[in-house]
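new request in #modeling-help
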Amino acid sequence: MKISVLQHDPAAHLPMRHGDPTPVSRNLNPLMHPFSRARERTRALNAAKMDRMFAKPFVAALEGHIDAVEVLCRQPGSLTSLASGSWDGGIILHNLSTRKQITSIPQAHKGKVSGLCFSPDEGKRLLSCGVDRNIKLWAVSDDNTTPEVPLSVFPGKAAFNSIDHHRTESLFATASNTVQIWDETKSASISNLTFPTSTETITSVRFNMSESSVLASIGTDRTFTLYDIRTGKAERRVVMQMRSNALSWSPTFPTTVLLASEDHNLYTFDIRHLDSPTQVYKAHVAAVMSCDWSPTGLEFVSGGWDRTVRIWQEGKGRQPEVYHTKRMQRVTSSVFSADARFVMSSSDDGNVRIWKAKASDKLGVVTARERAAMEYREKLKDRWRVDSEIDRVARTRHLPKSVHQTSKLKTAMLEARRVKEERRRKHTRVGESKPKPEKKKLVIAEQS
Amino acid sequence: MDALIAKADAIQPLQKKRKTYHTSAPSSSKTKSPSKNADPTLSTIAKRTSIPKSLQDSRPLPEDVPTYKHIANKKLRTHLSRQSEQGARAKALVEDAEMLLMDEAGGLEVEDEMDRTWRVGQTDVVQNSGQEAGKGRREFKLDGGPYRSRYTRNGRHLAIVGRMGHVSTFDWQSGTVHAELQLEETCRDITFLQDHSFFAATRLEFLPYHWLLASVGNPGYLKYQDTSTGQLIAEHRTKLGACNAMTQNLHNAVIHLGHQNGCITLWTPNLPHPAVQLLAHMGPVVSLSVDPSEGGRYMASAGRDGTVKVWDCRNWKGAVREWTVRGGGDPEVEWSQRGYLAVASSGNVNIYHPPSIHTPFHIRTPPPLYMTHPIPHRPLTSVRFAPFQDVLTVGHAAGLSSILVPGSGEPNFDSREADPYENKKARSEREVKALLDKIQPDLITLDPELIGTLAPVSKLTTEVTPVIDAKGKTTPRTEVPYARLPRIDRLREREKRRMRGKGKSMKRYLRKQRKNVIDPAAVNRRSEKAGKTREEKKRAAAIAAAGGQEEKKKPSALDRFKRSK
């Protein structure tokens, strides 16, 4: 008879020396882990609740402007510097980490500063344009000195609406009644780009980041136009239902462009197929005034006339993260920080606000265990998103009453419109009219 | 211009057709030329964004991974197939991890055909076991009536209680006593709560994952108390009098009660009545136990009538196996972690081993005996297997005696669930974690896998009767969910569902009266219908008799008024 009795070896289960970690033994047999699913669900619910509990996105408000802030621009190569231009004609260079002003130029322009951009040489020079028909080049440095006079002034013929610098060369483009290309060393514009039949005012212009000779503009004629500075021509133009207020090129997908539209939506376009947008982003309840991609290209921020800042996942057209405060007015400009952890917004109340890009993000040092726990919680939430209770906790956001009421009204109106359309179709001959997909409704004409 | 654009690769001429990615390249002569249809942007990005080769899983996917080819939505399809792929890989990895289990289960193995395992006595086992394992054989001689005992979940600590009120908890391996009390009242049972520092004494069970203490007393009220908040969660009146047998199913947290009239009832805190009630024995039920090794599938019960029955908890149609124990007294039953069943009756503890315990057998004989051990101190009041040890503790009139049962204990424990070697810090950490993971009591159901499964299809559907085509094939109409219906249809639906006026007292009264009344209109309708079908049958039979050909009717002048089909 063979007799063997179970005997654990304490040496295998106890720490070898004092202070050693206790060895962990695992048995993955599911019978050893009763209620594993129910426990995991509890954990997921807790994760969702913790996420909402720690959601404190507002970091700081930077003051300094006397009037509404119109434009924001982050300094290339720096995580902490941010330039802002205001309706009072002043420009301030903020330090985000110390929350102090590096440089302040109180009377940079007469009237509002409508555009700001840095030249790519380590961000030492700042270009600003205004409605006073001037472009000014400023030297900015960290030593807290205020430049009295600009390095150079480029006079134009019409009020400027936007400015953007070429990625590598010393060229920049401005938007007024045409798109003009300037050289930093020459006082007059070197070329004018315009679509042959256009008579519109250009509101914004942006260079593509990887295909650096391509630039895009949007205009008051509800248009989006693509130019190439090598040919000096407008290559393609799209006319949409409503005008766009801002545009931004994706930093990771060179063919993707994001438009913030007056019709409360944002659209991403693949410039190879301009006949319809690749995705519609719907949540704002008023015109979207600004948009900016995160440097990762996975998310972007938008600010709207509805006094909210929203952070979207690329490709997910609903339920963005929404930020608001009692005192924030219409959001005029919003940018992502270079490390994708923060979002800056400027608004009509004259403040620049810093927000976390992820509302429940922990600032400061995160240990490896903490990081692992966070990642686990993130995964749990993702996995149990189909559970209605967990989804409800994760999804619910408090909105200001005005936004909430407006969104309710908007839903009702859209619903009524849908019903009406449905009835109209019901009473027309079969096959005569087809419902048009939302994506196809946007573009009216594509011209080249 | 076009050349420039082609160089830039970003914009392509408008008139050109869209790219098709699935065209095959028939020309084999130009081998190295880059495909015209390749997306240059994608190819430049793909290099940087793919997972490095060292991190890619090169092993082939396990078979029968579900595919989602029928799903049209590309994003969803990719997401689902990636998920199922990951799941399949994880499953394969779990199977691999079984090799890492360190300890092996004990056991008795016969070498000779005529040898029998039950001939082995405790002296032989102790002689042949290791020094540490041999310590499991002990005798505690104690005054104060028959004793009952309970182990903690990690098998390290033991709580004992005497009938006269002597209570003690101690680490049975090192012999450290945690508490010793003389309660000076009758004590019927003892249980540990979340760890060895908390215990409670009467007839009760602690549900460790729900932090619920279930207790039942002589009045027959089953009470669920939340030990983390102190609230009384539920109180059920069993209506079956005093209850002497109680146990829990570890895998679904259902409480099993055995009553004086031979009934066994299964309870959850969410139902005011038992989830299952069955008449199991001719006399009072005295002991119950649920098999932890099969996921709580089998239950053993013992009655004062001297029978032991093994039940299948999924199918309550009679016992799977039953037998009568010898001698008088109340038999006690208990399953071990690996499915060994101990039955204590009169002066013996008999141990049976799986799978013969729950293989159906029509003759009322006990399954083949695995081990037996005589104890001279009657009555034997409790049998408890120690988790993660080959030890069985028997409580009796003169104290307790623990014996070695090779093979009964699970050899590999999981430190995250229950660790016999955990230190103070690990214990406190586990307590905090367990509190965070506390499952809400309303999630207790008979089927523990209910959570995380798909909800059943809603009964409030707008599905119309299925379409039956010419071949007699039935195809269900495509169902439009209520939310997607046009508003007018929605209103119509809502009107249909509205039960307005049905609950009025007069209507209710009339409805009740209507139950046994033969309504002449309904009778008429029914007879009409029956007549119609009869006629149809007759006609069909006539056709069949005529050789499958329908009798041709003579054309009539009145045919013009016939409704065309």
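bot summary: Chain B touches chain A through 83 residues (CB under 8 Å).
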